[in-house]
Amino acid sequence: MSTARPTRVHFVSLGCPKNRIDTETMLAGLPGERFEITPDADAADVVVVNTCAFVDSAKQESVDTILEFSERRTSGDLKRLVVTGCLAQRYPEELAAELPEVDHFVGTNDLGAVPAILQGRAADRITVGSPDRKDFDWEAPRYNSMAGGHTAYLKVSEGCSNTCAFCIIPTLRGPQRSRNIESVVAEALRLSAQGVKELNLVAQDLTAYGYDQTPRTNLTALLENLVQVDVKWIRLLYAYPRSFPKGLVEIMAREPKIVPYLDMPLQHISDPVLKAMKRGTNGETIRRRVAELREKLPHAALRTTFISGFPGETEDDHKRLLEFVQEARFERLGVFPFSREEGTPAHDLPDQVDPEVAQRRADEIMFAQREISRAHNEALLDREVEVLVERPSEESDLVMVGRTAQQAPEIDGVTYLGLSDDVYPGALVKAVITQVTDYDLVAEPV
Predict the structure, then answer these.
(1) Is position 132 within any domain?
(2) Out of 22-31, 326-335, 402-411, 413-422, which region has the weakest mean confidence (pLDDT)?
(3) Cis peptide before 215 (omega within 30 of 0)
(4) What sign results for the dihedral spanned by CA atoms 255, 257, 260, 263?
(5) Nearest one of 91, 159, 97, 82 to 128, comparing CA atoms
(6) Contact (Cβ atoms closer than 8 angstroms) between residue 13 and residue 39
(7) Contact predicate 234/185, CB 8 Å
(8) What is the separation of C-alpha 291 from the centre of its chain, rounded to a whole number of angstroms?
(9) What's the whole-number average pLDDT of the chain?
(10) Which ranges of 200-270 does DSSP label H, i.e. alpha helix?
(11) From CA 431, how far away is CA 219, in angstroms rounded?
(12) Higher-confidence residue: 8 or 134?
């Protein structure tokens, strides 16, 4: 009888939550008797790097990570190195030529090949197929990698059919392919049975969910089914602002499981910039959408993202965006300096903005938002909130870290709680906000 130890595999997942789900699918595909997943990269026999290639900074992080492990592969400390995801999909031949230390490159729609590769059942060095294949395996098992296992991302569609001038995602992941409602609910039920209390719905364009199906369905119909699942919170991330399905705001207002939170990337407010971006909307429509949400969901936290320094953006356009940030007072906000990506229409637009100017404009927006975020947090002082406890603090054994319904995992601030018998990972506790910082909260359990 063999006593050989299992092969130790370390996964690195870079980029967005949708990429994390791909990583979780690869993790679940490895047979446990032959493979052991290790969080310690130094102890690993095999490393899989699931890359991001959305913007320059993400590409650089992916390359740096690959190079770090390439050194270990060259020295013999690592038996195998596999690179997957968007960077592999975008530059397979170039990466293969420049990185002989990498054993395999796998694209975004070929992740099922990774378990076969690690088990020695696939020999091709490059496995990168068409990103728009339709036979996507939604029923593949997943390993929930979120801390504590009490929250999870739930991908409801793959790809994107929008044509935003700055975005490479449709090229890397193909057009939108929505899951059917039964498939989404089935996975939600599996996650609930595993102890998940919070489902975070993700897609490249969440509000377009179901429009590509026959017969057509929509996000409202999906939510009507998901609220029947035994979870506490359902959160909506990446809601494209151009069009909302009928009844979406109303179901958010009446269903307590759907948390008062909406992530709605707007990208800009100036009409000339929005037109150049090919966003299919204008500043007036965006303002109406925000006003509707403030009226019908008065307690909701709205999160958005903007791009600064898009080609042709003038100082006047930037001023309008700054004024809109002050006007709308978003609870959560992020800004990305424009990244000039080859293969996108924006790459060849005239009037490219100097990167230093784009960064300065982004900094000015975030400086304004910091004060707004602090004011939102100060308004919570002495108020009672519900907190989902996630994990012990890394700074103190006497402090636990959690989130309110208005704090999304990984991208927003957190809430710190004093340790007690009722405060443990997975617990939903009532607490009173006692201190705030610009982005985080401190609370005392009731």
Answers:
(1) no
(2) 22-31
(3) yes
(4) negative
(5) 91
(6) no
(7) no
(8) 26
(9) 94
(10) 219-226, 248-254
(11) 32
(12) 8
pTM across the whole model? 0.94
Query: How far is the C-alpha of 312 from the C-alpha of 431, rounded, in Å?
Result: 48
DSSP per-residue letters across 167-195: --HHHHH-S-EEPPHHHHHHHHHHHHHTT
In a domain, 1, yes or no: no
Same-domain pairing of 284 and 331: yes
Buried b (16+ CB within 10 A) or exposed e, 193-222: eeebbbbbbbbbbbbbbbbebeeebbbbbb
* 198 shares its domain with 313: yes
For residue 250, what are its two tokens? 């109303």
Torsion of CA 298, 303, 309, 314, to 10 degrees: 0
| One domain, residues 107 and 201 | no
CA distance 232 to 385: 14
- Of 327, 359, 378, the residue at which a domain comes to its end is 378
CA angle 108, 114, 120 (to 5 degrees): 150
Write down the pLDDT at residue 97.
Answer: 97
Give the pair of three-digit tokens for residue 84. Answer: 């997957």
pLDDT at 358: 98
Residue 65 and residue 53: Cα distance in Å, rounded? 13
Q: How far apart are CA 18 and CA 86, in angstroms?
A: 11
- pLDDT of 134 reads 66
327 in a structural domain: yes
Q: Does residue 175 sit in the same domain as residue 36?
A: no
Asked if residue 431 lies in contact with residue 443, where contact means CB atoms within 8 angstroms, the answer is yes
User: What's the Rg (C-alpha) of the chain?
Assistant: 22
Range of the domain at 439: 384-445
Helix or strand or coil: residue 309? Answer: coil
Domain check: are 389 and 243 in the same one?
no
Closest CA to 143 of 27, 257, 65: 27
